[in-house]
Amino acid sequence: MDIKSIMILTVIALSAPLACPESVRSHPVDSFIKETIASNPEILAAKSAFESASAGISQAASLDDPEIWGEYDRITGDRSSSGDPMTTLSVSQDVPFPTKVYLRAKIASKLAKMAYENYKAKERDIVSRVKSAYSELVLIYSSIDIDKENKNVLDQLSKTATTRYGAGKGTQAEALKAQLELAKVDNELIMLEQKRLTAQARLNVLVNKDPGTDLGIPSPEPAIEFNRPLDEICRLAVDNNPELKAYRYAIERGKAAYDLSLNEFLPDISLKFKQMVGDGRFEDGAWAGMVGVTIPLWFFQKQAFGVKEMKSDLEMLKAEYKGKENSVLFEVNDAYARVVANKKLVELYEMAYIPQALGTVNSFMKGYEAGNADFLSLIDSQRMLISFKLERYKALLDLRIALADLERSAGTDI
Description:
Elements lengths: L2 H13 L9 E2 L2 H11 L1 H21 L5 E7 H6 L6 E10 L2 H69 L5 H35 L10 E2 L11 H11 L1 H22 L5 E10 L2 E13 L9 H68 L4 H36 L4
Parallel strand pairs: 1-4
Antiparallel strand pairs: 2-3, 3-5, 5-6
Helix pairs in contact: 1-5, 1-9, 2-5, 3-5, 5-6, 5-8, 5-10, 7-9, 8-9, 9-10
């Protein structure tokens, strides 16, 4: 193969989009996300916590169990005229002040809503990690494809350089340089294979599969279109971020707990009904009813400090919410800045750096044919082209990771 044919092959191979046959493209990211939501242990644990908290609402709204008493009174019977023992059955029920039951149910409801938002926050976090791991796997496969294409071209160049050196038309340095570049590519392929196995294992763990499961070649990811302003993303985050919503429910729970502490100054009611039993049957008219109320006599030691405790907790929750809001907005700003920066980098590589590098390779090819450029410069220009293509994929990976982080912070798809 002559040098002109090799250079044409170089330009075509490095400028054409890399793609694998459709038959081996499998496992789109959406399928991983669905599988992760259905099987990831952390998500399932958070979901169970929410279901557990939901089951507590009905319990909080219910009364305590009634008590049934059976009484056999021989002492009173001995002192009565008949001398027969007295047997009574009684039922008692403690009834809290009605507003207390309502507030306890309200607190349980807010706890359930907090658990739900924590569950959605965990889901968002895991999905973000799946997207990042998937994009990393795509990058690694793309890098392997580029290095394999580069290796094929370098192999042909190495053979040509060796032939030219044997014919006295080239130098030994040209042949050695081509062989050195081939050795570098082999080293890179070894490291990429290790990274591929690590990225695949990371994705498998998130999907709750055996880390060694072969996932096949991931499908190409769709093009990224993003032009939303920062202030809009910040508003979305404040409204939709699950952690912020959980804090808002925590504040509502704190308010209900504070109201409940004030209601602890109100008395609870105790009801009791007694019925005498004689000869195995209820005696007509032999019954008694009792009503009792609790008196918050020690309010200055108990209820008053309960109010103080709940008020302090409420103020703490408000302060924590503000801190969390600031943290979320920082995360949004950081992720947004990374999205914008990497988007510009990808565009620069696609519109400027890679086309310029392709032009440089073509220029050195013509110069080498005319005897105006040396072989080493040709190799260097090709290495620069490969570097730009790999850096473009790296910037694309960083862009997708930043987008995944931005969606996690915003609490919604963008």
